[in-house]
Design brief:
By secondary structure, the protein is mainly alpha-helical. It has a domain of 136 residues. The chain has nine helices and five strands; from the N terminus they run βββαααααββαααα. A three-stranded antiparallel β-sheet has the order 1-2-3. A two-stranded antiparallel sheet has the order 4-5. Helix 1 packs across helix 6, helix 3 packs across helix 5 and helix 3 packs across helix 6. The radius of gyration is 20 Å and the shape is globular.
Length: 216
């Protein structure tokens, strides 16, 4: 069945394959399809999408679902909900991102045990407000870079995690396959890699580099 796309009169809902999408999902779908159709395209207007209130709200939902620990400012998710106010925080973040005054806090460093060893692994915990911005960046950037990945690439991807990779191995073994190739790229845990080439290749938005580097 071919995809069917349409928008409501107010632009609030898009229908893809006859399944209604909210505005954020519609945005992600559009970014993915555009990136897939135009592999060499550089997106010049992404920052305005990151600071949208609905995108920031979806970022909050993702952060809240993870129920993580507070950062260096000791601000907890419960305190934001009960005392400070979610709308207030998202409004502040949107204004700071828009006027360029946003500054992420330093991450809180903790150490957690490595399973099966006596070693400890360092873990950096950003403040809640910074995790929301990171989640908003992911919402906007992920569809673009997902379009560039090969189907055989597994890792921290939607429906392409380590358990999905193991299932592929099980399935392919059942089909008679007898070998597998695994590669791992080191030092790319910063956004866009060490020098940001991948990010620059896909984005020409002049407003994005500083904050995206700070949040990576």
């Amino acid at each position: 069945m071919s995809a069917v796309s349409a928008s409501s009169a107010d632009g609030g809902v898009r229908v893809v394959d006859k399944v209604p999408l909210d505005k954020v999902r519609a945005l992600q779908h559009t970014l993915y399809r555009t990136a897939k159709a135009e592999p060499e395209r550089r997106f010049h207007a992404l920052w305005d999408k990151v600071l949208r209130r609905d995108v920031l709200w979806r970022g909050w939902v993702a952060v809240r679902a993870n129920n993580g620990a507070p950062g260096v400012d000791r601000t907890t998710l419960d305190w934001i909900e009960r005392e400070y106010g979610i709308d207030r925080l998202l409004g502040e973040l949107s204004r700071e991102l828009r006027d360029g005054s946003y500054r992420p806090r330093p991450a809180r460093r903790v150490y957690i045990p490595k399973p099966g060893t006596t070693e400890q692994r360092p873990l950096s915990i950003p403040a809640v407000r910074d995790r929301i911005v990171q989640a908003a960046l992911k919402i906007v950037l992920e569809p673009i870079f997902e379009a560039d990945f090969a189907p055989c690439s597994f890792g921290f991807r939607p429906k392409r995690g380590q358990h999905d990779a193991l299932q592929v191995l099980v399935d392919e073994t059942g089909r008679g396959r007898r070998w597998v190739v695994e590669t791992e790229c080191a030092g790319i845990n910063r956004l866009g890699g060490g020098d940001g080439k991948a990010l620059r290749r896909r984005s020409s938005d002049p407003r994005r580099p500083r904050v995206m580097r700070r949040c990576s």
